[in-house]
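Final report, closing paragraph on structural work. Over the funding period we assembled a curated collection of sequence-structure pairs, and we close with a single example.
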Amino acid sequence: MLSPRAETILKSIVGQYIAKAKPVPSQSIMDNYELKLSSATIRNEMAHLEQEGYIIRAHPSAGSIPSDKGYRCYVESLGDIKLPLAEQRLVSHLFHQVEKEVLDEWLNLAATLIAQMVHNAAVVTIPKPKSCQFKHLELVSLQDYMGLIILVLSSVKIRQQLVTFSQVLSQEELTAIANKLTGLYSGLTRPQMSPKDAALTPVEQQITDSLTRIMEDEDNPEHERQYTNGLHFTINQPEFSHGQRILTLIELIEQRNLLKLVALPEPTGSEVRVIIGKENRTEAIQDYSIVVSQYGLPDEAIGTICVIGPTRMPYAHTIATVDYLSLLLSRLASRLYGKETSSQTNPN
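Its predicted structure, as stored:
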């Protein structure tokens, strides 16, 4: 635990380094906080912070740079941060300008706003259940040996697929099969459907196999739709003047691999997690800090909001922005799915 004096000095170092991207000298700390301390006392405290691993200095008389540990201490000291009311109202107003209940437009706007507000790259994913659920099946006869599967999944997603049979089936027969399978599988996830296969005819088993493949594909996180904005903000930071860091970040975002490497928070709706530098478990993102939250309906559909940037990130504003957008998108998702819940507070 740091003393209040040491914590104040660390906060000054972190705040100034975030703002200026330059090592912070002891005199700047005195000027910034108007501390009633001698420069010698401040230098002694800085030496202690360096010894404990909170700051890094090239040599004893050099300015200070926060370490990952220093940033972590700073973030933990921030407490409950809220986005300023004026920014909340602006964001809410902009969402009200978007055509009602058009999820694509909401999420694209969210990614754009977050990136512009925090000046780093933002990624927002579409809300979806961890495992999709079977809702309803229709089978349509197209030709003697060919039919069309129309599968309705949770969150009113519709998937279609052609299927070829080894025998001629009438529309009446296909409708009867569709009704039977709907009765068997309604409300089930793909893994839950497997034990139900025992009493099926060969044609019913063939259709079930097609259904499980469709649902397996839907559950694949690689097919998760993402909305990205603000990459130019991050790569223009001084930390990314070296080409390899830029290429790594671009590749992670463009190939949609970033969120696979991030330890996501539990789906509680609005908890914000901050992962700093080497706290990231994957080496490829250990030069970055990530602020991430999940939003949506915990038992229905969950999406992710993620900001990635250098460890020299404006944490307070980024956390507040992600937190507010998480609450706002959760509320919009509740309205879209017709499940306005008491647990969702009004973010305005």
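Residues 315-336 form the longest helix (22 residues). The beta strands are 55-56, 65-66, 121-125, 134-143, 146-153, 157-164, 226-229, 272-276, 288-297, 301-310. We thank the funder for supporting this effort.
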